[in-house]
Amino acid sequence: MFDVKLGCDEEARQVLQASLTDSPIRHAVLALRALRENLEKSGDGPASVAQQTPSYHYGLQQYCMALGGLASNLSSPGSNGLKSALLCCQIFISIEQVRKNYAAMAQHIIRGLRIMHESRARPDFVAANKLVPAHHNQLPFLDVFIIKLFAAPCKFADPPATADVSGTTLSVCLISPHQQPVESRDLRTIAPDMRTELTRIAASTLEFLGKVSQVKSVGIALRLLSEKAALLDSLESWLIDLELVQTEIGPPGPEPISVSFLRFFHLILKIVLLGALDSSPDLYAKLRTENDRLQGVANNVGERVRAYRMCSGTSSDRGERSTVR
Predict the structure, then answer these.
(1) Distance between start and end Cα atoms, the chain
(2) Across the strands, what pairs with 163?
(3) Overall pTM > 0.90
(4) How many CA atoms lie within 13 A of 78 on its CB side?
């Protein structure tokens, strides 16, 4: 469907290779493995929230050791410490995805992208028409990993409809009882198209980042700035279309979790693009604003997912387990 690879095989290879010699990365990998095993054994319902298995405790222990080791590495400057930090960020983001702690996940994303930008992982303009090469060669591209992670299909679908006493159908838990069934069905029909368009923009962003990594002349870099502006315009148009869909649906109410994840993904793409080929004085103010928005969306997603899991378990007790994708 797209000309770029959205798989994370190369990123996984880098992490596993580095874990052989880098202690914080090794602890992080062990933490992710243990927490993933705990998730597979305990399931995804409300019981798993309260149940803490030995795998879960071991995973948290290794996670804390990874965080401590990373802090020590960052205290000593050099490309090895930066590489370790960015690879650890990849694993920490995956860990918080498994834990469904999206607020913490956003914090790792924001900090990791800041490390990438401040360490100049790619060529950058430091002044008008003054292009400088990447400060550190061979640094992991955390932004590419994050985009690929979010381009994967969203796990959370909306709970299926259930009949109420009057014979009308209402979506369980996540949809306001004041919404009409046709409205929720319409949104479910439109949202996949919105996701396809956002994934297309994400693929184009990956292509753009690949070109930025290789840029060597001011002329080519200036043309890439035009491409960057077009991608930001595409993101703005996508958001306008999404809001139009929301308006057409009718009365305000909780939006499906899958749409909240799309907002999360949209902001990540915007933040990544804003930081590309730009070190202007006003950049950090822009990034601070968008980072705050990202954190707010992540906090909301985390709350919605917790409600989803509790609702999912309730439906399961009734033999009406909600489906996920």
Answers:
(1) 20
(2) 169
(3) no
(4) 7
